């Protein structure tokens, strides 16, 4: 998974979102050790201080924790990871429904269109 950063929002917020996505998708499994800050920053092509800020926020949220001399790790709390996954999914659905509403579709019409599209793809 490549790091996709855009200029429209703060970089550290985008890093948080992308690391969360990597956690909920299983790319970083529960209990896994994260690469060092400098390595992550180099991979994402960002300043290490920006990556540090993103990781500090993930620590505050509980998805990541530090062990003094060993580095940072993904939480082992599977419930927290699943809750984060649910929250991200709800956010995506809400954004999608808002965009469809802007196109003039009601929620019912959107759901109907989704079902129709699913049948056509089978």
Distance between the termini: 27 Å
Low-confidence stretches: none
Report the structural category. Answer: mainly alpha
Quote the average pLDDT. Answer: 94
How many strand units?
A: 2
Q: The biggest beta sheet, please?
A: 2 strands, antiparallel
Order of helices and strands: HHHEEHH
Radius of gyration: 18 Å
Number of helices: 5
Helical content band: 55-70%
General form: elongated
**Biggest sheet strand line-up:** 1-2
State which percent range the strand residues make up.
Answer: 5-15%
Notes on the structure:
- It is elongated and about 55 Å long.
- The longest helix is centred in the C-terminal third of the chain and has 25 residues, at 78-102.
- The protein is built from five helices and two strands, in the order αααββαα.
- The chain has 122 residues and is mainly alpha-helical.
- Helix content is 62%, strand content 7%.
- The two termini are 27 Å apart.
- α1 (11-24) packs across α4 (78-102).
- Strands 1-2 form a two-stranded antiparallel sheet.
- The mean pLDDT is 94.
List the defining traits of the structure above.
single chain; 122 residues; mainly alpha; two-stranded antiparallel ribbon; 62% helix
Topology (SSEs and partners):
Blueprint: H1 11-24, H2 37-44, H3 48-61, E1 64-67, E2 71-74, H4 78-102, H5 107-121
Antiparallel strand pairs: 1-2
Helix pairs in contact: 1-3, 1-4, 2-3
In brief:
The chain has helices at 11-24, 37-44, 48-61, 78-102, 107-121, and strands at residues 64-67, 71-74. With 122 residues, the protein is mostly helical.
